[in-house]
Amino acid sequence: MIFFYTIIPAILLSLYAQYKVRSAYSKYSRIASSSHMTGAEVARRILDTNGLFDIRVEEVRGQLSDHYDPQAKVVRLSTDNYHGTSLAGTAIAAHEVGHAIQDSEGYAFLRFRHALVPVANFGSKAAFPLILAGLIFSQFQSLLLLGIVFFSAAVLFQIITLPVEFNASSRAMQLVVAQGFIRNEEERGTRKVLDAAALTYVAAAAAAVLELVRLIYIYRSSN
């Protein structure tokens, strides 16, 4: 029964989030912004306005592969967003620059997330072999518990990601309005793109928490 209360909702929420982000992106990537600036130009303008002249803006292959690399100090935009002048591209470019601004300001949640990366990576890799061993060999329940502890680090990373992403989207919305990249009637579409993107992180965090709940339930039941 615990399967239906955890795994099924997680799958449904994940599918819904993917649908929303692709639907919003598909719609607003076909609508040009009033500024007619490419995503690369928007990103460069915002970076320069905030004194971040050392941060580069580069093109990266793939769709919705946009991200900010804090190690290389690079904002990477997917091809369509880098060269395109759409509302979606403007929103996403501003969002990724929002992460660069967070980095330059030492935003607490971003710093915490960066610090968690090696712990979360190790935890996610080590967790499931331990959990599987604990489930197969019932006499070694301590392995299951240890796997749950490691998995908790990955869950914490997903949770900490939420305020980082929401803050970057909030910054993006303020920036594109303040710098005149969009007009009043374009705000709704821009916000829809940002909200849809944020929903994917909510879905990932919810799925991780539900999986953790399921594992804890299995451990308690086995004891």
TrEMBL record:
Keywords: Hydrolase, Membrane, Protease, Transmembrane, Transmembrane helix
GO molecular function term, any single one: peptidase activity
Matching Pfam families: Zn_peptidase_2
Gene Ontology biological process: proteolysis
Record carries keyword Transmembrane helix: yes
Transmembrane segments: 115-136, 143-164, 198-219
UniProt feature coiled coil, ranges: none
UniProt keyword Zinc present: no
The protein's name in its UniProt record: Zn-dependent membrane protease YugP
Organism: Caldalkalibacillus horti
